[in-house]
Design a protein that fits this description.
Elements lengths: L2 H11 L4 H8 L3 H8 L7 H11 L3 H5 L15 E5 L4 E8 L3 E8 L15 E8 L1 E6 L2 E6 L3 E5 L4 E5 L5 E8 L10
Antiparallel strand pairs: 1-2, 2-3, 3-9, 4-7, 4-9, 5-6, 5-8
């Protein structure tokens, strides 16, 4: 863990000196310097007082880099295609167990002729257009602003039944890390 570098980065971003941290926490400047260079590991109680002085939650100091906020700018999104009709997929964000994407369905296109199944749970929000969603024996027409969710292990498919491009925001949760299958 690289707690010291995190503390130093927060302190510098907030224009706080080591002396100011030491004044608030009662720690010595030498000890704080060792903490910031990762030469010593402070106790939880010490970290708590440093977090208070920095005005950040203690939990934030304990996060690993991959657990912190990750920003994906619109122009930086990864784009792929999915299914037999090569639907345009724009990857919005990914965590260890979840991914979110925007999928464009041209008029008449679908996730495939036959329903398919895969591991995970999905939540869909129709942002534009009109789609038909089917899972097992159930089906429904959904329009802009409508949402639906399902366990993806039951065969399902989605089809654009409107006259314009349909755009659907999809979040997929899986137990397996990064086990990303097609929609």
């Amino acid at each position: 863990m690289d707690i010291g570098s995190t503390i130093r980065a927060i302190r510098k971003r907030k224009n706080i000196t080591i002396a100011q941290i030491c004044e608030q926490t009662g720690l010595s400047q030498g000890f704080m310097s060792q903490v910031e260079t990762n030469k010593t590991s402070p106790s939880i109680a010490t970290l708590e007082s440093i977090a208070e002085a920095l005005k950040v939650p203690l939990a934030y100091l304990l996060l690993r880099k991959e657990e912190r906020m990750h920003i994906v700018r619109k122009e930086e999104r990864r784009h792929t295609s999915s299914g037999p009709e090569h639907l345009k997929v724009s990857h919005v964000g990914t965590t260890k167990h979840m991914r979110m994407m925007l999928v464009e369905f041209p008029p008449g296109s679908s996730t495939g002729e036959l329903p398919h199944a895969h591991e995970g749970e999905e939540v869909h929000l129709v942002l534009q257009g009109k789609i038909y969603a089917e899972q097992g024996e159930e089906g429904a027409v959904l329009e802009e602003g409508d949402s639906f969710c399902w366990n993806a292990c039951t065969p399902h498919k989605v089809k654009n039944v409107g006259d314009e491009v349909a755009i659907v925001l999809i979040s997929v949760y899986t137990e397996e890390q990064g086990d990303w299958k097609v929609i």
